[in-house]
Amino acid sequence: MTGLEVLYTYVASSIDCPQDAIVCFVHWEMIKSGYRCIGSGDEPSSSDKMTELLPADWSNNKELYSLRYKAKDTDKQLLLKAVVVSSTMIFNLMNSSTQQVSDLTVNIYDHLDTDQLHSFDRVFRDTEGLSQKVRTQLLPSEDRPTRERTDMKSQTEKEHKQKREHSSPLCNRHPPQGAHW
């Protein structure tokens, strides 16, 4: 979890509630994936700059978080929104140019000890599980680890091959090879 402790310590005075800690964690995953935060809110402002840090006003609204990101090496921009619903947070991540949206639902109490918000070494539970959820469900598919994309591609190819082999049983009057009737 290299870097998370530094980020969490830096924003510790802004962490007033469990959802702040979860947003900080998701932000850290965005940074690890090659994005930089350019500001809060839906619209660009004159104070926008690419940074690994959270903006000063990142946690002003505890019911709706809104952060904007830009890829380090491209012009790709993403808008991250998080809404609190009871003990759950719903994250939406939209690619600003394609309008593609991915989402993630997180049960706050599965991943935090809410009594330890100001003790980094005790606040998070199952960081690997939460990290995997963010990477596989929220981050754009091209930013997911290559192995997963390859596995998904080979799985899809296998499924297509099986469909071709078993398609239209009325047209194929011979049993598949290897079938023992």
Describe this structure in words.
Plays an important role in control of proteasome function. Inhibits the hydrolysis of protein and peptide substrates by the 20S proteasome. Also inhibits the activation of the proteasome by the proteasome regulatory proteins PA700 and PA28. Residues 141-167 have a biased composition (Basic and acidic residues). Belongs to the proteasome inhibitor PI31 family. The protein is α+β, with helices and mostly antiparallel strands. The chain has one domain (4-143): Protein Transport Mog1p, Chain A (3-Layer(aba) Sandwich), CATH 3.40.1000.30. The protein has 6 helices and 5 strands; from the N terminus they run ααβββββαααα. The chain has helices spanning 4-11, 18-32, 108-111, 120-123, 127-138, 146-166; strands spanning 35-40, 64-71, 77-85, 88-95, 101-107. The protein has a 5-stranded antiparallel β-sheet. It is globular, with a radius of gyration of 21 Å. Mean pLDDT is 84; it is low at 144-156 and 159-176.
Topology:
Layout: H1 4-11, H2 18-32, E1 35-40, E2 64-71, E3 77-85, E4 88-95, E5 101-107, H3 108-111, H4 120-123, H5 127-138, H6 146-166
Antiparallel strand pairs: 1-2, 2-3, 3-4, 4-5
Helix pairs in contact: 1-2
Helical content class: 25-40%
Radius of gyration using CA atoms only: 21 Å
The structural class is alpha+beta
The percent range for strand residues is 15-25%
Number of strands: 5
CATH topology annotation = Protein Transport Mog1p, Chain A
CATH class category label: Alpha Beta
Instruction: Estimate the mean pLDDT confidence.
Output: 84
Quaternary status of these chains?
A: single chain
Strand order of the largest sheet: 1-2-3-4-5
